[in-house]
Specification:
Number of helices: 13
CATH architecture of the largest domain: Up-down Bundle
Helix content: 55-70%
Distance between the termini: 54 Å
CATH superfamily of the largest domain: Multidrug efflux transporter AcrB transmembrane domain
CATH class of the largest domain: Mainly Alpha
Radius of gyration: 30 Å
Structural class: alpha+beta
Strand order of the largest sheet: 3-4-2-5
Shape: elongated
Oligomer: single chain
Largest sheet: 4 strands, antiparallel
Order of helices and strands: HHEHEHEEHHEHHEHHHHH
Number of domains: 2
Number of strands: 6
CATH topology of the largest domain: Multidrug efflux transporter AcrB transmembrane fold
Strand content: 5-15%
Length: 378
């Protein structure tokens, strides 16, 4: 099968992709900005749906087979809890959450009504009262953990790589947090302590994915970019195409177990704690897989190409005309970027011999061959 007829997955497997991630950075930035702005507007308009652990209140749970949410709401109207949060957890567990201070209703009265609805004794109804200070402690601890995490990661990446990579990583982390919070605000998903824990887990995964990309970029910087024959942006493009298959495999293998937690654990087995945790992970991991490639790397290229050395290399390459992006397969063969006007050669066929090709002259003509010197006949 010809290279041009291969599917995207075959070209990924054979290292034949040359996707221009850096050249299309405005598209990625606008897409992310649109999602973030929509989320921020929703956050100011309707806020987040905090669970009982954050805002305080009382929760009742009881086994109530066959009882619907509508029936429960009608029954609780008589005790002033018609606006309570009512859920059917799993297949037959009825959960009611409300703030009794606002409703001015006694706990025992609500417990008796729920027991009557479920057809059980009041002692079989589980009652859990949570004060708002518990949620404030969780928020305060999560904030301190986040600050410590960001400082530690910034120091590590600065010492391991450089501060510009650390800045690009922080931008990607901020992107992931804003996207996750925006999705929760738009969808009305409940924010629980499990959501906070999942949020901190997301940050760790986002860092891991970014480190993989940055390690490949640093490796290519010491080789291809150091030669001066490739701009920093082109080198980042090549690095992203080289790790693209690995990033996809890592993301897919991470998302599949989370989907199983969400579907099997949350929907089938009724483990709502797992559902809250898995939902935040699913949103955050998808955002971090996107940001490591489409946000962090383009920001790094922008910062590095402002350095005098890389700026001069880019200007020199642009003065020679457009270049054909290098594929991972061509890079492995020792190829370099060549002018795009070079007799229509396919970029995927550029190999080690490209370094010795003579660049074309204006008009597509090549210099005439040099005449041989006449020697004596022996």
């Amino acid at each position: 099968m010809a290279a041009g007829k291969r599917s995207i997955w075959q070209r990924l497997y054979h290292g034949e992709t040359s996707i221009d991630f850096i050249g299309r950075r405005r598209t990625w930035f606008l897409l992310s900005a649109g999602v973030i702005v929509i989320g921020i507007v929703s956050l100011f308009a309707q806020g987040l749906n905090f669970g009982i652990d954050f805002k305080g209140g009382t929760a009742w749970e009881v086994e109530a087979p066959g009882v619907s949410v509508a029936e429960s709401r009608d029954a609780l109207e008589s005790v002033g809890l018609g606006d309570a949060k009512i859920q059917i957890v799993g297949s037959d567990t009825l959960r009611v959450q409300a703030d009794l201070e606002d409703a001015k209703t006694e706990t025992d009265e609500v417990t008796a009504k729920i027991a009557e609805l479920a057809g059980v004794a009041p002692t079989q109804v589980s009652v859990n009262e949570v004060g708002p200070t518990w949620g404030q402690e969780i928020t305060s601890k999560a904030r301190r953990a986040l600050v410590f995490f960001l400082v530690a990661i910034t120091l590590y990446i600065t010492l391991r790589f450089e501060w510009k990579m650390a800045l690009a990583t922080l931008a990607a982390l901020l992107h992931d947090i804003l996207v996750t919070v925006g999705v929760y605000s738009l969808s009305g998903f409940e924010v629980t302590p499990a959501t906070v824990i999942a949020g901190l887990t997301i940050l760790g995964y986002s860092i891991y994915d970014g480190i993989v990309v940055f390690d490949k970029i640093e490796e290519n910087t010491k080789g291809l970019a150091a030669s001066g024959r490739m701009s920093y942006g082109d080198m980042v493009n090549l690095s992203l195409n080289q790790v693209l298959m690995r990033s996809l495999n890592t993301s897919i293998t991470a998302l599949l177990p989370i989907l199983s937690l969400l579907v099997v654990g949350g929907k089938i087995l009724g483990a709502t704690t797992l559902q809250d945790f898995a939902l935040a992970l699913l949103i955050g991991l998808a955002a971090s897989a996107y940001s490591s490639i489409f946000i962090a790397s383009p920001i790094l290229a922008i910062l590095k190409e402002r350095e005098p050395r890389y700026a001069s290399i880019k200007q020199r390459i642009l003065a020679k005309g457009a270049v054909t992006p290098l594929t991972p397969a061509a890079a492995a063969a020792g190829g370099i970027t060549v002018p795009a006007t070079d007799a229509g050669r396919d970029a995927e066929k550029v190999g080690a011999g490209a370094a010795t090709r003579v660049p074309p002259r204006p008009g597509g003509t090549r210099p005439p061959p040099r005449p041989r010197k006449k020697g004596r006949k022996r």
